[in-house]
Write the structure tokens for this entry.
Amino acid sequence: MQRTGRWVSVVWVVAAFICALQGRTVVGADSGASVPAAGKAKYVFLFIGDGMGRYQRAAATAYLRETAKNPDAVLTMDAFPVQGETLTDAAGGGVTDSAAAGTALATGHKTTNKRIAMDASGREDLRTMAERARARGMKIGILSSVSLDHATPACFYAHVPSRNEYAKIAHAAITTPTVDFLGGGGLLGQKQGDGTDLLETAKKQGIILVRTRKALAAVQPGKRVFAFNHRLDKKAALPWVTASKPDDLTLAELTRHGIRLLDNPQGFFIMVEGGKIDWACHSNDLKSAVRETLAFDEAVAVAREFAKARPADTLVVVTADHETGNLRPAKGGAGYRFGSKGHSAQPVPTSALGVGAERFKGKTHLVDISHRLAELMGQSE
Ligand SMILES: [Zn+2]
């Protein structure tokens, strides 16, 4: 046993050395018995329904059943084999915002509200799972229905003490190599303090920028791609699902293109945020929250289809950064009622499918979700 263990580690070191010589990373290479790749997820999807608690899912299910005239209809995420419950509190135990929660998910560390992948003091950067994955050769996709420099997506590639520093966050999206495919809304921080237009900077760096379905479909894999919908609202977000037009890009099709553009032998990590679920709940607009949740679930269905084709390598995790609006079943049992216009401490549902999915069972905190994802991607802290 001892000797076998030593022999395996010798092979491992030699393999690591050869790969280093070839400029490749060891993790992600899943050929040969000497590489302990078993149980590792090569294609990883992390879906974050911003503000999506248990009753946001329940209200969307009720709407789905009614409109589909099918009393047994279920959301794709609710049909995942593993279901857990996740606490979301920020450092110090208070109700989290999307920045601290996004940081917890992206880095595995609790922090205070407003921080983007930085510690509570606002002085230390916290390395993100997307950065670690990118360093090991995986391709990275960051998709959202709101602007891509908003708190949740920002936590995967930027490090700033305050989520309101949009110009700095947008700058990081372009000038750091973390993100290969950025899609959905636009960038609130596109115009820099010195008047520079970041999209011009992006083009100079060879980033392909597309705004329509046709242009996106024509892009070939191999370059960094930004796909910002041709029509954005004042906050650089996608139009509300309730007001969307047939030519607006959807989270589901962005996910499909993410897979197409990022698929490669080293694997990929794709984060998809349903950002407007939260916005709808902040204004206690249940109809919009439901429609945004259903559009988000359609993107989850795209990942599930991919997982069916590559079951041995794929992990899909669906969670939320926090609940918004303290939604509850209405008294008397008809429908759901908001209890506030802010975030709540309600635990959020977490659903998992594929390689290592069972590790997301039971009660967790956002930082546990992060640690388990990182481990399953072969990342050490
Ligand atoms: Zn919110």
Notes: DSSP finds twelve helices and 14 strands in the chain. The first helix runs from residue 2 to 21. The two ends are 28 Å apart (CA to CA).
